[in-house]
Design goal:
Helix content is 55%, strand content 7%. It has 8 helices and 4 strands. 36% of the residues are buried. By secondary structure, it is of the alpha+beta class. It has a 4-stranded mixed beta sheet, covered by helices on one side. Belongs to the GST superfamily. This is Glutathione S-transferase. It holds the Pfam family GST_C. InterPro entries: Glutathione-S-Trfase_C-like (IPR010987), Glutathione-S-Trfase_C_sf (IPR036282), Glutathione_S-Trfase (IPR040079), Glutathione_S-Trfase_N (IPR004045), GST_C (IPR004046), Gtt2-like_C (IPR034346), Gtt2-like_N (IPR034345), Thioredoxin-like_sf (IPR036249).
Amino acid sequence: MKLYSHRQAPNPFRVTLFLAEKGVKVNTAYVDFMHGELKADEFKAINPFQRLPVLVLEDGTAISESCAICRYIEEMNPLKPLLGQTAKDRALIEMWNRRADLGLLNEVAQVFRHTNPAMAPLEQPQVKEWGEANRPKALATLAIFDAQLASNRFVAGDRYSIADITLFAAINFARVIKLQVPEELGNLRRWYSMMTERPGVQAALQVMKETSSA
C-alpha cells in the first residue's frame, strides 16, 4: 500500500492519527498541493477530485476520503476498534464523527480557505465574508461538544473512537485561524489535554513535526 498525504493538512492528519492509534505503518508519500502537485496528470489519474489523502492498494485500487481510508484500515486491522463494535456504538460514533467533520472541521476550513491570502490561488472565488461568517459557527460547535463531554469521557461515549480523532484534528487545525477552545469550555479543554497524552496522538504529532521540517 501507498498513502499520499500532506505535512500539515487536517484530513491527512486524521489518517495519521488513526494509523498511529492502530499501530499500522504505511509507506507514505507527501504531496505539496500549494505548488500544484495535485493538478499534475499523474495525481489526477489517482484521484480526479485532486484531494488528499489517497490510499493506493497493491492491486492499484485508489481509496480517497479520510474516513473511507480509515474504514479500510479498520477492516484489515480489527484489533483496537475505532469505529465501534455494536450497531448502537457504530451509529453513535458515525453521528459524532460527522458532527465533528461537517460541523467543526469544515467550518474551520472555510475560515482558512476564504480569509488566508495564501489560499487565494486554490479557492476561487475567495469570499472573505463567507469565511468570517463561519468563525462564530465553529465556536458554537465547540460549545456543543463541551456539553457532550460533560457526561462522557470520550466524544461518542466511554470508548476512544474516530470521533475523537476528527475533533482533535479540527481543534488542532483551528490554530491556523487563531481559534482556541475558550476557557469556559472546561470539559472540552479537559478532553483535549487527555488526548495530547495518548501515545498514538503523540506519535502522530511527532510525524507532523518531522515532516513539516523536512
